[in-house]
Amino acid sequence: MKAKIFIFYLFSLLVIFAGQVTAQNETVVIQTTLGTMKARLYPDVPNHTRTFVARAKKGEFNGTLFTRVIPEFMIQGGSPDSRNAPAGARVGYGDRSTEILPEFRTHYFSKKGALAAPRQNDDINPQKKSDMSQFFIVQGKVYRSGELDTLQLAKNQPFRKKALDQFYYPVQQELKQLRQDDPQEYNKRAADITAKIDSVIRNSPGHLLFSDEQKEAYKTIGGSHHLDGEYTIFGELTEGFDVLDKIAAQKRDSYDRPVQDVKIISVTVE
Fold first, then answer.
1. How far is CA 27 from CA 33, 115, 156, 191, in A?
2. pTM
3. How many C-beta atoms lie closer than 10 Å to residue 127's C-beta?
4. Element containing residue 48 per DSSP (H, E)
């Protein structure tokens, strides 16, 4: 009898655990008039994932349009005001009542296929809250290695200058002499100053330092690096990159709305 109870208890735990694993690895299927895309949702962005899944299960995205498409940038859709919108109407305003606080994760970035939440500009939305009535998918562009290096240098130049003024220029002449008199001590001092300069850059708001993973992604599949840290990313495409490209390539009006409607037939959860 005790053995049967133990087996039943163990089976119950396995069922619960399996359910938790499924919940943490949900896949959404985005069926459009131009094809189907699949995306996996990130379990460590829980509020965005949970909210997106809840809206999808209620059919909130079904019948809406991709309202803003920009080649080498992104495609955005799902806004409730786009459902049955007349041709040429400006849509995509979203719904501010659906806003939630951001969940930025530095290990997720805006590579091609990143699934993210749009938001209002900082002047009216300083907390960078996400508008969960819509979503966008990054297309971006492929960068050359030299481009990424140049972007970093240009963005970090003010911070580097500040650090040089603080740690290098006051001892510049001393270091020059030390380099001749005691190369070993010079190398030690130079390494210390370099570390301090790097620390200033890394701790300066708005700095730009690409990780090895970012560099590899941006040089191969591409992305939109300037979105990093500004919009919450909560998933990524696993299938349908050709559909993403097809939607991004649509002819569009002055509001970036496709001239020929691209409808979201359904968003379902697997």
1. 20, 12, 38, 47
2. 0.83
3. 10
4. helix 46-57
**What are the backbone angles phi and psi of residue 265, rounded to the nearest 5°?**
-65, -45
Q: Which two tokens stand for residue 81?
A: 């005001």
C-alpha distances out from residue 231 to 118, 128, 137, 143, 147, Å: 7, 7, 11, 21, 23
Cα 4 to Cα 55: distance, rounded to the nearest angstrom: 42
- Residue in 134, 137, 141 with CA at minimum distance from that of residue 237: 137
Rounded to the nearest 10°, the torsion over CA 81, 247, 75, 82 is: 0
Burial class (CB in 10 A: 0-12, 13-18, 19+), 69: buried
The β-bridge partners of 40 are 27, 236
Longest CA–CA separation in the chain, Å: 86
- State how far Cα 129 lies from the chain centre: 14
Token digits for 106? 């530095």
For 186, the token pair is 């010079």
**Position 24 confidence tier, pLDDT thresholds 50, 70, 90:** low
- Taking only the tens place, the pLDDT of each residue in 57-67 is 999 999 999 99
- Cβ-based neighbours of 215, under 8 Å, separated by 6 or more: 145, 148
